[in-house]
Every structure is written in C-alpha cells, then in structure tokens.
Amino acid sequence: MNDVILINDQWYVLATSSRADGRSLVMKNEETFGLFDRFGDIQHIGVGEQGLYHRGTRHLSHYEMLINDRRPMLLNSSVSNNNNTLAVDLTTPDLYQDDKLLIPKGTVHIFRARFLCQGVSYEHIRIRNFGPHRTSFGIKFLFTADFADIFEVRGQKRSRRGKIVPAGLGPGELILGYLGLDKVKRQTRIAFEPAPDRLSEDEAAYLFSLQPRGEVEIFLTISCINGQDRPLTLPYSIALAGNKSNWARKQAGAATVRSSNEQFNDWLNRSLADLLMLVTTTGHGQYPYAGVPWFSTPFGRDGIIAAWQTLWINPDLARGVLAFLAQNQADEESPAQDAEPGKILHETRQGEMAALGEVPFRRYYGSVDATPLFVMLAGQYFTRTGDQTFLKSIWPSVKRALNWIDTYGDQDGDGFVEYARKSGQGIIQQGWKDSNDSVFHQDGSPAEGPIALCEVQGYVYGAKLAGAELAAVLGEEPLAASLREAAETLKKRFNQAFWCDEINSFALALDGEKKPCRVRASNAGHALFTGIANEKYAKIMAETLFGNDFFSGWGVRTVAATEKRYNP
User: How far is 67 from 199, CA to CA, in rounded Å?
Assistant: First the structure.
C-alpha cells in the first residue's frame, strides 16, 4: 500500500500509516541545512519542504530507507543537544512473504546517525540481528533530487527551469545533476561504503544475511556541489571529529552562563546551541543567519539585533556582522533592489532565481531600519570592546550610512526617515513588521506611503548619538557636534509630531500626508529603548504597554487587543 498520497498538488500521509507524525528534525552547518522526518528520511509531506539544501537549492528532495520494501518501525529519534547529530533507532515490523511471517517484529535493529559538515551529509547505518536464527533481508535506499530553488519550494511558480542532467553511475556512487538557467551546474553526489549490490539513478539496494548478533554497517556520503564549489569529502570518523572540533571552537568564542537552577541552565544551553547552529562563517567573520528553512541566509536587521543581544558574551559576532554589512553596503541607486548609496543590506540570496533576477534578493536593500541600526551596533561594539582599529576600518561605511539617513532616508526633508517601495517585487512594508497590512490607521484602513515609522525615528536618534561618539573618538569633533545637535532636534520634533494624547501612546507611524496612525502598537516601545521619548511620555508609554489590553501575560502584544486589526 502507498502511504503517501498527492491531493491538489500537496503531499499527505495516510492516517493509518506510522508516518502520520509530520514533525521535521532540523540540522544546519554553515551553508547547508536539512529538514528530515523522524525516521531520518526526506518525504513529500504537507507543503513538501523537507530536503537537503545547499546555498539556496534543494539538493535532495526524496530520501528513504526501506527493509524488504517496507518502512521500518520507529523506536526513537532526536537531534543532539548541540544540534550536531541526528540519531534514529528503528526496528523491523512483521515482514511477510506470501502470507508467511518471514521476520517477526523487533528482530532487526537499525541505528542511523547523520551530521552535516562543509556541504556534505555524512550518515552511518548499523544493522544488527537480535533474532535467534540467521536472518536474510534487503535494505533499499530511494533518492530524488529536484534541485528546486528555495523560493520554488516556498510556492513561487516559474515559467522556465533548467534541465535535469542524466545521472552518472560509478563504482559505489551516484551523481544526480541539474544545469540551471544561470549556467551553473549543481550536483548531488551519493557515495556508498560498501558498494551496493544494485545501483540505479534512483535506487541503491543491498542484500544481507546475518547470524544471530551479526552486524553490518553502511556509510553514505552525500555531497552538495554548486558549480566550481566542490566540498571536500572525508572518511566518516575523520569528518565527525572535525565537526566536533568546529563546534567546540564556536562555543569557545562565547562566555558561558550557569545558575543554581537546572531548568534555567537547560533553557540557556538550548538557546546558545540554536544560535550557534545559525552562525555561519563568511569571508568577513561569523554571521547569525536568520532561520531555517526559509531564512537561512544573512539578513541585515536580524543579524544586527542578534549580534547586539549577544554582545555582552560574544563581541566577535558583532564584529563579523558589522564587517559583512559594511562590505555589502549599497554603492549606487538600483530601484530593482531598493538600493541607494550607503544603505545597509536587507537580505542576500545565493540560489538560481536570485542570480537570474526572478526574485530581487540576490542583494536586496528593502529595509528602512537596518541602516541606522548598523550605526547603533557600531557604537555599541566600540563601547564594549574599545577596538579602535576595527572602528577605523568600518568608519567610512558608518559615515555613508549616516549620509543615507539624511538624504535618501529623509525623502521629503521633514527630518523624519520614511520608506516607499521602489522595486515591483520587493517588500511593501519595510520595517520589522513587514506583513503587507502591518501599518494602518485607527479605523483599520491601510496607511499610504511614504511611511515614517515610530521606531525608525528612534533608531535614527540612536544612530546620530552613536555616530557622534565615534566621530569624537576618531578626532572629527565638528561632525560629532553636528550629529549631537541633529539628534536633539529630532527628539523634540518626534515628541511633538508622534505623541497622541487620545491613545496615551506614540503613533505607529506618519503616513504620506503626515497624518498619524493613531494605533497602539509595540513599535512605540522602541522609543523607550532608544531614549527618543521624553521623560513625561516615556512614563505614560510604559504604563500603556503594561495595560490589560496590551500585556498578554507572556509579553507585550505587538498590537493592542482593542485595535481594529488585532488578531491573536
């Protein structure tokens, strides 16, 4: 019986199947990540996002292990606490042949261990016979590689695609390939040790016969090849030792925190492990990618905030973020990328669709807040480290960011920084709440741009103060004085233009006609974080945020429960 069925372009698992658990196990290492089911397989389930991905492309879209053409029974599976290793324990169901019980349930134990390292998935499979008699059985692996771009997997349709290259077969290895419209050849190389008894372009099969307590091992090495980027493959034990050493080096770069409460310690350790999994090595240092699966790539705002929040225990992360963003700062106007000179990156992508311009995200600059936040982080990093050598290296980028704020950022010269999308494919709302309906008026109607967000003015205020401190350190006192004066002027104008007595809050935003969006939202709380709120309004704002319709008990709601567009 086929346990996986296709309905309306979506894959589902029959309720009678043991596969009904749709949870995915997540792994990531540098530019490679995988989403696997609890059996350690890759299936077409739900929206079909499972797979092995590398640099924005899915290199394996189906991967399944069978015993006598049946799926094993799941005993247990988990990803290690440090996110490094996926371990799966399986056993045999009752296996029949011509209505005769061939292998009773629980006779054969199968252990699978997998880790990712530098563009390669390494897997160790150990099979042991716990039955009282010699047992013969077949192990089969099924493979498919669709080489879908990450945006295709997310649901974006393409009118044209590249070509699947005929599979290459060699002694103990299979190579699946795809030639993209961007002329880049992407390949998935699957190597087996020992070589299977039968190998085709979508299947590898073994036949085993084990004595009681007999054991056999299989090693699979799956390499993701992107053009000339060919990862080095190593023996399993050597790669495992290297993976552990790399993890230890990452961990050694940060301070550790322990308390007398073990639950609290577990929470901290889990958080650190998740963060370190997202941290990726770039040519400019370490960068925390935004999230698996859809956002496993550098995002400006997300990287800055993560680096800021961990600055006290690991300032090297902030250094890597600042260096990367400085290197990728916009140099010219490009409406297709929402780019302007001095603007800081929103996100960058490496897949085929980004390379071809089918999506604008190869280097996309459609966030209004990343630029002032970049300057603020530079100031915080210097305060934390006193690293004047690094400050000097990024100072030209800091000044260009400050210049963007006053020129391109302030589109109408009113002293506030606004945004309006220029790219037809880009993001409409370019603050941290980037859903299309996130900025609206009291009656629920959408605000028309250009839009000046409340929190962005606070970031600009913070950027000017941080820029002033850095300028003073580097001996540019006239610039420092000018930035301090501009910050004070902005603070006065902000409190006058954004405060709304009737809602006891700063307005969410000013629309294109300078009408305030009289909506109580958590955005206004950022005015407390940056210090742009005056003392009187800061006190009222704090009381508003902790009111019953704003405070859920789990934290501050992003929109007050009484607002028109509130949706829990």
Answer: 16
